[in-house]
Amino acid sequence: MNLSVTDAMDEARIALRTLADRVEGIAHPTLRLGVTGLSRAGKTIFTTALIHALTRGGRLPVFEALQSGRIARAELQPQPDDAVPRFAYEDHLKTLAEARQWPSSTTRVSELRLSIRYATARGSLRTLTLDLVDYPGEWLLDLPLLDMSYADFARQSLALARAPGRSDVAAPYLAAIAAAPAYGPQDETKAREVAALFTQYLSACRSEKLAMSLLPPGRFLMPGDLEGSPALTFAPLDVDEKALKSGSLGAMMERRFEAYKNAVVRPFFRTHFARLDRQIVLVDTLAALNAGPAALADLERALDGILAAFRTGRNSLVSTLFRPRIEKVLFAATKADHLHQSSHDRLEAILARLVERARTRAHDHGAALDVVALAAIRATREARVRRDGHELDAIVGTPEAGQEAGGHRFDGMEEMAVFPGDLPADPNALFDPSGAGFRGLATAVEGDADFRFLRFRPPAGIGDGSIPHIRLDRALHFLLDDRLA
Q1: Cis peptide before 181 (omega within 30 of 0)
Q2: Which residue of 160, 242, 357, 414 sits 20 to 30 Å from the alpha carbon of 89, by its own alpha carbon?
Q3: Comparing 24 with 205, which gets the higher pLDDT?
Q4: d(CA 431, CA 283)
Q5: Which pTM value belongs to this model?
Q6: Torsions phi, psi of 415, nearest 5?
Q7: How far, in Å, CA of 454 to CA of 420, rounded?
Q8: What gap in Å lies between CA 424 and CA 432, rounded to an integer?
């Protein structure tokens, strides 16, 4: 089956599923909100905090529908899709409250349904069904693969692997493919060896020191039940314009690349992604700043690729019924609590600079796109600390075990006042094309990086009432308030 026929069949399935959703939505208005982000950006934390805020309330002054008292109640409802895992809200809340540990990272799609009973501005009572779809951002970066041939994928992936900032950790993989020509005979042992080294390279890129973001294929780092399957046993090889002959190693890799698209990427796109109405993308901007200019540039490319995957724009009657567009996208820089409040707006400005190209494209299509710096669960508090006769802005929290600062290694139990430093007032100062804008962990001498943001344990007292946050109410207002008017 050729690609155009496959695409047409996908579109037909999407249209039928969407029409069924809309027919159901006439009686029960429904909003499907996608929650995603790249590794360690805080997807599970955000979704848990959002559910807690809607079901238990809290201090959310900017979220008008809740602040004004128009939301009468929000309740958890049975899982909407029987074949999709339920988002384990109660388990995650228990982990936060009792163990003071962050929940485990998102490694698969999960869903949870809320019904929100509210009064409109005119006083009539209505119910909005909110379906939260939580999924790994790495899977989102797979969507461009649908429009690529294996040769395109190989050329782009190898260009990244050979780029400064990656070439050192890619060296074993690059050496392996030099000894495994694409036009040589197929060899299962060689294929498995090269695929394993390619996966190790992707994993090394995700380390704290490098903090790279653009790392497709996404399932290589979170294989789940596909681990060891041929669909995950391929890698980019050096190919030229010659066709790959049947029986060659390159043809074997090409076949498995197509299997990956058909078995992994297309079902995710068809079943989950194409049905979203709105989307929040969580971004660990501080991790890129820790690592250095190469990581920041890589994050910018990844975010541009993420928005390119969305079909954004203002919906018409036809698109609403058969092929919905995502009308609102919110990019959120997480972990704002790792900074003093004087830098929150600066963190937001850096994220706005990162998505500048994507923002222009979304606006041209009629979609609403915004940025915010937030902490869905605030792990620190602010303080003024006196040192050497000067008062300094500080944050106070409990660093996670194993974190280090100033030669001190934290045990996860002691509370500490930390001086996080200031972000630049002009975000463009970080985007020097020469890569000399600042020093990061990837290249700086130990202890000489310009930024070093620690990770903190969750605060004590979660579960007793409202959860402390930074700007979660702004996110909720942007994503939900117009549907609760």
Answers
A1: no
A2: 414
A3: 205
A4: 17
A5: 0.88
A6: -85, 145
A7: 8
A8: 13
Cα dist. 121→69, 74, 125, 328, 408 in Å?
A: 11, 18, 10, 22, 55
pLDDT average, residue stretch 203-211? 94
Q: What is the mean pLDDT of residues 245-266?
A: 95
- Round to whole Å and give the CA distance between 335 and 337: 5
Which among 420, 440, 428, 439 has a CA at the least distance from the CA of 336?
A: 420
| Tokens 């501080």, residue located | 286
d(C-alpha 431, C-alpha 453), whole Å: 19
The answer to whether residue 109 scores a pLDDT higher than 60 is yes
Is the model's pLDDT at 272 over the cut of 90? Answer: no
- What percentage of the chain exceeds 70 in pLDDT? 89
| DSSP bridge pairs for 133 | 34, 111
For residue 142 the two structure tokens come to 């797979």
Three-state secondary structure of the chain: CCHHHHHHHHHHHHHHHHHHHHHHHHHCCEEEEEEEECCCCCHHHHHHHHHHHHHHCCCCCCCHHHHCCCEEEEEEECCCCCCCCECCHHHHHHHHHHHCCCCCCCCCCEEEEEEEEEECCCCCEEEEEEEEEECCHHHHCCHHHHHCCHHHHHHHHHHHHCCCCCHHHHHHHHHHHHCCCCCCECCHHHHHHHHHHHHHHHHHHCCCCCCCCCCCCHHHCCCHHHCCCHHHCCCCCCCCCCCCCCCEHHHHHHHHHHHHHHHHHHHHHHHCHHHCCEEEEEECHHHHHHHCHHHHHHHHHHHHHHHHHCCECCCCHHHHHHCCCECEEEEEECCHHHCCHHHHHHHHHHHHHHCHHHHHHHHHCCCEEEEEECECCCCCEEEEEEECCEEEEEEEECECCCCEECCEECCCCCCEEECCCCCCCCHHHHCCCCCCCCCCCCCCCCCCCCCCCCCECCCCCCCCCCCCCECHHHHHHHHHHHHHC
Per-residue confidence (pLDDT) for residue 323, from 0 to 100: 47
Written as six digits, the tokens of 47 are 């979704």
pLDDT, average across residues 289-309: 90
Lowest mean pLDDT among 15-24, 87-96, 427-436: 15-24
List, for residues 141-183, the tens digit of each pLDDT value. Answer: 898 899 899 999 999 999 999 998 899 999 999 999 999 999 9
Q: What's the rounded Cα separation, in Å, for the pair 149 and 309?
A: 17
Of all residues in the chain, the percent with pLDDT exceeding 90 is 64
Strands 30-37 and 125-134: parallel
If one counts every other C-beta atom within 10 angstroms of the C-beta of residue 417, the result is 16
Would you state the structure tokens that stand for residue 228, as one six-digit string? 């060891």
Q: Per the structure block, which two tokens stand in for 100?
A: 């003071």
